[in-house]
Amino acid sequence: MTADDHIVFIVDDDERIREALGELLDSHGMRAAAFESAGDYVRAEKPDVPACLILDIELPDINGLDLQRQIADGDHPPIVFITGHGDIPSSVRAIKRGAVDFLTKPFSDADLMAAVHAAIAEDREKRAERAERDALRQHYLDLTPREREVLPLVVSGLLNKQAAAELGISEVTLQIHRRNVMQKMAAASLADLVRIAEKLEIPITHSRRVGGN
């Protein structure tokens, strides 16, 4: 991990905490950006790299747990909560909403760094998954309207003659469309195409009918 391929955001209204965390992260070769309020963090432009958000619970403008809830639907980095007034209900709520850890001050440098590394690794994995889905969506958009009709029939397990009958086309034509779908979706096998369809959440409305048309 280099300082250019990630960033750690620090949101804490205590300047001493911000400085101490910044120095700790710097000593581990990690890039950091610090903010004293949730509003400052939300408004700031953020680099498109794997990240972690170290977030205090008590902030001058909004509670950290409320901020977690508000940004839950966006592509926000994994959160490591820090607080001087921790309680079990708050920690449970934070973890249930996806926080990586909930640390009560004073916490050890080792505990914080372990949480930060885990958060960045999680964000890196999520970003890779998003990139894969985006590429698959683009492949899907490259399909013709007929090929988009063929895809769910193929992954549902229908025989070629059954899928062809479903669409009112010949079996030979169905096989051509099926081959094009496999190529355009970069699927190495039927099992691979099924996995791709699941990632794209393509609805499967048919099931294989033994002895069908």
From TrEMBL:
The organism's place on the tree of life at top rank: Bacteria
Annotated Response regulatory domain residues: 7-120
SUPFAM superfamilies attached to this UniProt entry: C-terminal effector domain of the bipartite response regulators, CheY-like
Entry keyword Transcription: yes
Keywords: DNA-binding, Phosphoprotein, Transcription, Transcription regulation, Two-component regulatory system
Molecular function (Gene Ontology), one example: DNA binding
Membrane-spanning residues: none
GO terms of biological process kind: phosphorelay signal transduction system; regulation of DNA-templated transcription
Residue ranges occupied by any HTH luxR-type domain in the UniProt entry: 136-201
Modified-residue entries (4-aspartylphosphate), positions: D56
Protein name in UniProt: DNA-binding response regulator
Organism from which the protein derives: Rhizobium vallis
